[in-house]
User: Fold LysR family transcriptional regulator from Scandinavium hiltneri.
Amino acid sequence: MVNFTRLDLNLLLTLQVLLDELNVTRAARRLNLSQPSVSVQLAKLREFFDDPLLLPGPRGMQPTSRANALREPLRQALSTLEAVVAPVEAFDPAKAELTWRVAATDYMATAILLPMLEGLRQDAPLSRLAVYELQTQRFLRQAEQGDIDLIFHTRDGAPDSLHQRSLFHERYVLAGREQHPMLQSPLTAAEFCQLEQVMVSPDGGGFWAATDDALARSGLSRRVVLSVPHFLFLVETLLKTNLVAVVPERLTRNVAGLTTVEPPVDVVGFEMLMLWHERQHRDAGHRWMRQRVTESLK
Assistant:
């Protein structure tokens, strides 16, 4: 392995100028150094590379074979180094060709991403948005490995190792089709329990949720006759049947044909968070995207 502690990186810039000019005096002028200083640096370069590098010739200095072999790798290395240490340019969403990768449930995609989608397409037309299904057992590892940029998650179960921003507090409503005969006036808890209901079970096949916890505290139980894995199917079911559902309020916004009432049981809502890993925390494009999400929900 090369011992870089023996090499002042400024010497590499001197070498590049010397190889361009093949003249110590002209190289010194370009580097804004004295001729003796450049000669001293050339001596150090010869020692480091164990090669004369530049030899006196009839028309100036002539590069050795080793020096010629260094030309292009040296130019590329200095160009890369310059890009690394250059100031970060301001993020321009109109020119950004990025793919933002987001983990969300279908409810989160509807409640959070849909309101911002039109504005995102207008302001960042060259960008893309990839929505991945939120997998509770995998999203932390996906974030750590850089496979996911943003995660939407409730506060319950959100890992402390990720950055967090609170987006909103959600409440539950009782929803059904617009002309549902039992949703035209306030319901008693007993009437609510007699309604045939549908619920979302993300893991599949579940018939118990926060609503059932609230009812159980009062010694009541409801009739859940359908369990589905996604909110999209739930909404379609509500529109085409007499089933009802206790759902997050944002899911029902602007859905033609649905009506909502307050459930006759106190169902505790939840806080929705946006999560991201430290590696994206200071990235200008990522900061812009996070701000875009937040502003779209105001």
User: Anything to note?
Assistant: The chain has three domains: 4-85, 99-167+271-296, 172-268. The chain is about 40% helix and 20% strand. The first helix runs from residue 10 to 21.
